[in-house]
Structures
1.
Amino acid sequence: MKTFEEELKRPVVRVENSSIKPYFGKAVEFYSDKVKEYHNAFSEMNKYIDSLEEQLDYYKKDKRFEVMADEILKLKSKNKLLPVVPQFVADWFENNKDNREYEIYNINADISEIYRGKISGVNRKLNEIQKWFDNPKNKPIETIIKMQDGYTVEKEKKFWLKNKVTGGYLYKFNSGGFIETDVTTYNNRIYKKQCLFTQQEIDNMETGSYEQIEVEE
């Protein structure tokens, strides 16, 4: 009967040198090739870096490129400071560029008259551009002045208006007037566009029974 120590003794496995040598040789050859590949890749990368540094030194010596770099930086800085305005403000700005100061005065005068109840009829409420000028958060005068050096038009959010009762979507005609339709069943892009409303348009409408659904264009 074997003792406990004899049972735990690791068995002797005889591996001939001739049997393992071919596999070991292949492994060494494989990794040697990989090391050579990486070495060559790093060597090429270093050559490329040296080439870039030489080009950079050349450009640094040429004043023309220095001036161009300064101009690019100025343009980037300027673009960051451009005011961002809604499309209707941009439209007003362009439509009144020949007599802008006078039109600014007119808008503020009209706003004052509306608040004093001096204007009646359809013009007794502030329109879209008047509301924008009347909102101090917009810094209207400062913004208009800055726009003379350029501006960016903000991308307005668009919404579908879905009737909470009927489930229909509001469709607007170019000539005026509205109907309800099921916009989700149509793939016509132009048709769907007629069902899109900006927040400014919605604010000027009575849409109490309609749900606003934001649409990604």
Note: Residues 84-153 form one domain.
2.
Amino acid sequence: MLIIGLIGSLSSGKHLIADILHEQYDFVILEYKDFKKKKDHTAKECLSKVKETWPKNVVIVGIDSLKAMTEIRDNPQFFPIAIEGPLILRFQRQKHPIIHSLEMFVQLDDYLMFGLSSNEQYIENMLENLHLDSKDISPLNKCMDSCDLRLINDTNDRRNLEKKLADLLSVNSKDQQSTTTTKLLCPNWDQYFLMLAWITASQLV
């Protein structure tokens, strides 16, 4: 079982990547925002849902809390991937009806990425319309810096993105628990038993 977390800037292509993982690799898609109702237990609720999907692979879309990422890392098979892309390309992709200009997009992007705001009232209105709570958000740059892998989505060509994702999933990733390397979608026996131990231990709590 592999758990991929997608952490990325505004309109970087997180949902498209999740769709590709679902369609081509049979991943189960979980939306991180769906677990935010449990403000102090978001990561715990998310991981509980992950356990229900065993042994299927899971992709968690839109993690935006450094605290939650730290807690989810308790799982030995969690691999967070930072998704980035050129600003102008991301603006062209965005479909939010309340974002009418590049300037508005940049202001919101700066806030989500770095916590910077030149117009607090505007940002609060934007967050409310996007159903986001500023208290639950960590600057995305901090979340992305802690990711194991990084994918630059600098294209609107889906086939190109599919190839990039396939290349990323086939890289050798060093297992934190041993000196062996393994391809992400082909865990070794050590990783398999670590996952079983994690699920069993969590059920005893």
Note: The beta strands are 3-8, 28-31, 58-61, 78-84, 149-152, 172-174, 181-183.
3.
Amino acid sequence: MTGDYVFQLMRKGTKWERRDMYFVGDDDGPKGRRRIGFANEGDADVLEEDRFFRVLLKYSYKHSLMGAANVTGEREGQGDNGIVSGHAYSILQVRRAGTTLGMGGVKLLQLRNPWGTFEWKGAWSDGSDEWKKHPGIASEVGYKETDDGTFWMEYKDFARTFNMVDICDRTTKDDLRLDVNEDDGCLGPMKGCVGGCGQFWCCCMGARVIYWGNQTSSETEKGAGCCVTG
């Protein structure tokens, strides 16, 4: 729908293989739905697990749309770890938290079940001991214990639990919008206009979006630099 590049990464053992989305055709039914598929074009781009995390980190930094699932070929069902197999989860954030000069830290992902329930129950889940042991990381990533389908998990657990990731490398050069602040009633649009103009002109947000915003690409990112922590 966005016109941007969409691709899929499937886990094969400990590696992740890229597959590109392509148009299959239109259904013959009355609704005329368009069908898509995923396949390799030529030599598949294969990512080792360490590079795979850096790629996820970079696309998260670029505000790309990402989702993950554990595809088993069976009907949807919740496992002991809280994750529903055969069900799609949104990837909200990818972070390398608790770093020192861009080094070390904990590799974390924030995901959300669109059902608003059935969350991860392992390490770094809501209410787990990891948050109590690392209050600095909790503050850095904005951790909140809420039963809303949103949860955090460590990358090593993510890579073992999910086997498919979809990424839309979204173009952000047109991401100029007016926040109307609906909760403020009739003063919302005025507040949004004043704040928006300040960000656009005084904070150079307009120039940054227009001239340095992301342009979608069919090439897989090489990975995040040392300064990208999410």
Note: The helical segments are 49-61, 129-133, 135-141, 155-161, 188-202, 205-212.
4.
Amino acid sequence: MESACYHICQLLKVVWNTEESQLYKELKINKTPTEDLILQYYIRLGDRTINTSITDKTQTLTLRIGYVPMTGQQILLSMLIIKANNVPILDIFSKSSDPYVRIELMPRYFFPLESYPSPTTEIRQKTLNPKWNQFFRMTIAESKFFINGACLRISILDHDVVLFNDIAGEAFIPLSTIPKMAGSEIKNLPKQIIIPILPVSNNQYGIEFMILKDRIHDNVAKEFCDYELYIKNYHMLPPLCNDDNEFRTEAIKTLDKRKKQIKTVIKNAF
């Protein structure tokens, strides 16, 4: 590739420098495999979470998190979701929110939901400063845990009984930055940390996302972009996310419909 760039620059009478050439950088990133581009995307979002300064008005989540190695080349990830502060008002009628936390391993091609389901906290009613103190554990293959770009996507959502759940914000924690614990018991969790929960922003969709978006015949790229664009455009979880809280209303409707059908069958039978 360097040789091709050199000859192109000679034809264009442009000075060639591998380190500084924008042409070289763009050609290189366009040749990057889909899986690596997706990892780069999450690396950048992890950096965004880590480097964001927290003020009194920042939406935050307080938690304790750590891991211990297990037999069979597995990692046991433990976390205590403690509380959130400054959750935005997402219910205009109550002028409050009904927040809950969703924990998801990313990227999805590494951590399919069938093998790595996404746990959620309980829903806290009408509060902008919810408290949970809920403990979660996840088992992750060691070969995936330490890959640069593998991360936890932690979302705070506002539960809506009638409509869809709105995303209040997200944080991305690189798995490789999570501290090791002395033991698997909850008492061995590291000290609590406070992380910013940031709103979905156009700034998070960089050049790697634009390249992936153009790979319309690549199933991995398409699934990734569809998922992220749904969140960007609607500020809601996509239907394929399998969130129990999201589809609770639909399940209730289905159950009520089935009850009515059964009553009708029994009535007609007699």
Note: The longest strand covers residues 74-85.
